[in-house]
Amino acid sequence: MASKTIKIAYLYEDLMNTYGDSGDVKIIRFLLKKQGYSTQIDNISLGDKFDAFDYDFVFFGGGQDFEQTVIAKDLPRHKETLTKYINDGKPMLGVCGGYQLVGTYYKTNSGVTIKGLDILPFHTVFKADKRMIGDTRYMSEWGEVRAFENHSGQTYFDDPDKLHPLGTMIEGYGNNPQDHVEGLRYRNFIGTYSHGPILKNLNVANAIVKMILEWHDERMKKAAADKAV
Ligand code: GLN
């Protein structure tokens, strides 16, 4: 019988939780429950072992610069598994600080450069002129999204042929003040500056739930085949 438990890895839940993004995980849990699935949510924190392929969904929420410097020291341990997971097209959502750390680096306000996972070719820099804070609205492939942003980092794609924005701005800044785009979609990795939480937008939440259930099916079939050998 197919497993009805969806496993979610919440990266550094205890440290990257300043902006209420745990609401995203709660919405996913609620939508899955409506479809008869239960969820197991594991906080993967400093020093914890982690294999992304043991999970149906990886979530990485926003955090302040200080917490980002702390976890950046632990993060390289997970580079290999997350690189493969993202490149294989498995579902992951990175919000703000969590989004930034999937790229090459984030140069902060104090001039410190926080090394990211360097999985996708984009970088983030603090620019003294403004903190981007306020309501956002943008058009995504799933329709309009309304959210709230609160960040100093400005994100720029280094390989625009490989990376596609999540949406086109209607209101607010998104990735940076110049490009008028928000976030990133690469295979089934979604990076975004949207808090609110973003998944109160059910068009986006349902699209992610679909990705999760497809990967869950594949993961369960593989586990059953491995067992049969
Ligand atoms: N500390 C980062 C910045 O200010 C991320 C903020 C966040 O996650 N909201 O850009």
Helix content: 25-40%
Reported by name, the CATH topology is Rossmann fold
SSE order, one letter for each helix or strand: EHEEHHEHEEEEEEEEEEH
- For the record, the count of structural domains works out to 1
CATH architecture: 3-Layer(aba) Sandwich
Q: Mean pLDDT across all residues, rounded?
A: 96
| Rg measurement, Å | 17 Å
What is the global morphology? globular
**Broad CATH class:** Alpha Beta
Number of helices, where a helix is a run of at least 4 consecutive DSSP H or I residues: 5
CATH homology group: Class I glutamine amidotransferase (GATase) domain
Number of strands: 14
The major sheet is characterized as: 6 strands, mixed
Which kinds of small molecule does this entry bind, naming each only once?
A: glutamine
What fraction of residues sit in β-strands?
Answer: 25-35%
Family: Belongs to the CobB/CobQ family. GatD subfamily.
Domain CobB/CobQ-like glutamine amidotransferase: 7-200
Protein name: Lipid II isoglutaminyl synthase (glutamine-hydrolyzing) subunit GatD
Binding site for substrate: 131
